[in-house]
Amino acid sequence: MYPARGLSIVRRPFLADASGMHTIRRMPDRYVLCVDDEAIITESLKRELRAELPHLKVEAAYSGETALKLLAEIDGDGGEPAVLVTDERMPGMKGHMLLREARKAFPRMYGILLTGYSDIDAIAHAVNEAGLFRYIHKPWERRDLMMAVRRAAELYDREAELEILRRRVEELNEALIAALEHRPRDWDPDSFCHVQRVACYAALLGRRLGLAETEVRKLYTYAPLHDIGKSGIPHEILDKPGRLTPEEYEVVKRHVEIGTDLLKSVDVEDFVKDLILYHHERWDGKGYLAGMAGEHIPLSARITALADCLDAMLTKRPYMEALPFDDVAREIEGDSGKRFDPAVVEAFRAERESFREIAEGETARYCRSLRDPP
Ligand SMILES: [Fe+2]
């Protein structure tokens, strides 16, 4: 099996520019791979593509099997397979099979199939199983093929740029949440770790519960926003070393409403508002502010509630020392059906060792796997 495709664009180091004041992202090489068992055709195609699209690297393979090995090598060397142009009729692995296998490892890669007029079944397979971008009948017009490859490479570049932008927004989001949670007066470098841990815990629970990857991703991005409303609670109360008075506790409770109000003018989906407004609700109905119970509480809030409590108990607070992981796990499992949704607790139990690793500092590795699903 080939290595899962990493989002290597954004993981690459930054380079300082000449002034040292700015940074420039080092872009990986983008590759077009041509595959045909007839070496003369493949080589001439490679030459033409190199001449026509000089900003791309062009490689050739003479069978599906060697093409897959070459794609893995390109990826291993830090390149990005952007377009795969393959003949359908080859001994061994057929073109549509190659496209299907290649897309498993490189889901963003564009596929172009070169076919005869009678290869309609192969085209159907390639469209349905490998998201085929274009099929071109043989013998092809040079201009048609060049246009198809050029267009595929442009789309690939555009999607990669969007991915970089999206990641930057997420990074800014994390920084913003950390800043709001801890405010400059008591800035603590651990605040980023807290944000990341809650993101990981929530996303891991979501994945274990069988949510779609888009939902898992949303949990990763937005669960750390749950306490954004604490920016509206006075420092003296939040940082008070002893127990809060009943009046002070009532003030703290308002953070769920303040957080929701803060996002009123922003076009965020209900998923986000729900996890802010309802993350202190309890399964047994004894939480705040709405006093909702059971499945009336939105799932995103039920998940965030456990993720938040887990990290809070594992972290030293003004009024309490950090607890050992096993004690915290016992407490969470004991609160199944009371404070927490039994299904969410079950997901926690099933992933208990992963949670322990995140709590012990393996956050970065988990963050990567939750942000960039295989
Ligand atoms: Fe909270």
Summarize the structure.
This protein has 374 residues and is α/β, with parallel strands linked by helices.
Give a structural overview:
It contains 17 helices and 7 strands. It is an alpha/beta fold and 374 residues long. The protein folds into 2 domains: 8-160, Rossmann fold (3-Layer(aba) Sandwich); 183-371, Orthogonal Bundle (Hypothetical protein af1432), CATH 1.10.3210. Residues 1-25 have low confidence and may be disordered. The structure holds fe (ii) ion (FE2). Residues 226-227, 255, 279-280 line the site of fe (ii) ion.
Mean pLDDT: 83
Q: Give the ordered list of helices and strands.
A: HEEEHEHEHEHEHHHHHHHHHHHH
Low-confidence stretches: 1-25
- By CATH reckoning, the class of the largest domain would read Mainly Alpha
Quaternary status: single chain
Number of helical stretches of at least 4 residues:
17
CATH architecture label name of the largest domain: Orthogonal Bundle
Shape: elongated
Q: How large is the radius of gyration?
A: 26 Å
Instruction: Output the structural class.
Output: alpha/beta
Small molecules (ligands, ions, cofactors) in the structure: fe (ii) ion
Strand order of the largest sheet: 4-3-5-6-7
The CATH topology of the largest domain corresponds to Hypothetical protein af1432
